[in-house]
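User: Second chain of the day. Same drill as before.
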Amino acid sequence: MCHVIVTCRSMLWTLLSIVVAFAELIAFMSADWLIGKAHPGSFQDTDSRRAGSMDPYRPTLGIYGRCTRIEHLQSSMPDTSCGPYADNFSEIASGFWQATAIFLAVGILILCAVAFVSVFTMCVQSIMKKSIFNVCGLLQGIAGLFLILGLILYPAGWGCQKAISYCGPYASAYKLGDCSLGWAFYTAIGGTVLTFICAVFSAQAEIATSSDKVQEEIEEGKSLICLL
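Assistant: Same format as last time:
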């Protein structure tokens, strides 16, 4: 039977590791990386626009997905359709975005593995005399590097034909044209910053868990320890 060792630092590191993994995964899957130029409603919406209830629609474009508005012949209320525009990896709009997808996917896979392992650090702190906190921190640092590479390459693909169709003819590599950045891109950046914070914080979690005070509590037979 293992001793469940919980310190505030290790618990915070575990929670942050889980949050970062989910944030990066959600951002990667989202279509809200680019917000395209505004499209007015169709001729069927003339009365609604005159009444001021119909705002121009701005489609969104992700790494492999998109959201567009679908007009109905029998209805004045359009629907928004979201889904992948690429049926396979080779159909992703830009080679830079393909590289972005690879780097982000590898980074997210590492983060998800670390998040899974971090739950068990309350019970097991080392494997083969190696601190799990230190190993996970190193993996998070590596994942952060993959994420940075993906985010750097992503704007280089803004000159692809798919992006130009959303952002206008002035869009090019590292130039948005008529587009703006969506929440998914900012979430990916924020998650990358938190990834490196987690990597640093893992060392603090290791120090707190292996402190003399915690070891004394273990020797006294306590199974649940919560210390700063």
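Residues 42-53 have pLDDT under 50 and may be disordered.

User: Great, on to the next one.
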